[in-house]
Amino acid sequence: MSQKLKDATIPTIPLGARIQRWIGRNLIRIYAVFAFTYLFIPVAYTFAFSFNDSGKSNLIWKGFTLGNWQNPCGAPEVCNALGNSIKIGFLATFFSTILGTMIAFAIGRHKFRGRSTSNLLIFLPMATPEIVMGASLLSLFLVLKINPGFWPTVIAHIVFCISFVVVTVKARIASLDPRLEQAAMDLYANEFETFRRVTLPLVAPGIAGAALLAFSLSFDDFIITNFNSGTLTTFPKFIYVSAARGIPAQANVIGSAMFFLALTIVIVGQLVNRRKVR
Amino acid sequence: MGKIRTPYLLLLPGFGFLFTFFILPIINLAQTSTQTRVSGGDTGQYEQTLRFTNYLDAFVENKEQFGRSFLYAIIATVLALAIAYPLAYAIAFKAGKYKNLLLVLVVAPFFTSFLLRTIAWKQILGEEGFVVPTLRSLGIISESTTLTSTSFAVVMGMTYNFLPFMTLPLFASIDRIDPRTLEASGDLYANGLTTFRRVTLPLSMPGVVAGTLLTFIPAAGDYVNAAILGNPNTKMLGNVIESRYFKIVDYPTAAALSFTLMAAILILVTLYIRKAGTEELV
Question: Which family does this protein fall into (chain A) (predicted)?
Fold first, then answer.
């Protein structure tokens, strides 16, 4: 029956109309392909030019080489800057994840006086332009006679990461089924045990996501860092400063490597998550 | 008793930190903004006064950059919304089992440093890139037209850099829409456009509001795109604040400008949220 129906209908539609119909139906998918191309053009460009045999300034294509990948620290200062960024990123992630997760549990799990004020205090840093946050922290450090540098930068990064951690973890807490915890209590788990064996494992993916977000925000931050780091160089600062005289191809190598590393972490994380769900 | 105290104990370290390193600096910035230069003192020496005319001076001196910041940020936000909405819609409704993967791909460009990507745009749109020669040979732009160091490049760079901030919240709220509501609308003889206007768009408003805010706020305070992709005539407020701090060492003006920027953003954001009618943002 259905075979007959297919035979009867398909040949009657002319090819042009079929193509038109296919485009009409898939317009939004075609659009999405274009949008992703737009998103990835500069990433592809950065990756391609990491293989450029460029010498000092990586502006014009001069020939293919693997040399930049074999010697990513070949350009002066670049690995020092990268090391600083990684150190700052880890410290900022560690502290902001702990502080932010505690706040998220307080706001997401408890009704208390001042809850809406707390929400406002979390929203404010996100509504403050980076330049204002960076400039105001710098002026505080100047008043306190603290020289800008490594620790001021770490502190600044914790400040802007906390809000994003709170929002991410809170969303995960809100999506939890409260019956799971009730079930644990019914099975005579006390509050602490319930938290450790039921709540925390369920919220853990949210905390991991928040930590990854915090690290990438910290690693990529330029504006606030520029205000509070003094003479310390971070990876984004290195790029900004060397942009005037040409960025060495090693910076492209590190940028591309970070891209693939982060992509791998995220995809592996998702696969692990999916397996757990099954 | 312990139950009542728990949330406050959880909040204490984080809020203590935020108070010390976010609220106090803002208060301190307010104080700095009314300081006066010590007459006959060194560069960067200021004394605490209540000179509110700093604000007026700073504004009058930089009203062009001020207007430009908001104009560029608004254009970039609108463009980002126009680009991101169909994309978020496609991921939410058409991606099937690839939904999570595509979502990762939206964020993925983030992991290449945003400065590297902005500089990549500068080179792609520059004289040696492939865009300008192609457009010239097609006759779309004239021989003398350049794309870098223009306001077009600055706005394009901002649109590009903040696109994921727009796409993610849009996706989150479109993804929550029950496809059956769209079917119901169709069953009631609404065409595609009406369904979008009366059902999809209103239901995705929280995402539109969150996305536009997350794009507009950093865009208004940005100076990196203007510094890399622009020229002296595309300077934004951020560029002025930066140079007041580091090159001219004029802290009061920089502080007054920062404060004006923040106040203007907060006022705009409040009006916008009122108008859009969504309170639940965080």
Answer: Belongs to the binding-protein-dependent transport system permease family. CysTW subfamily.
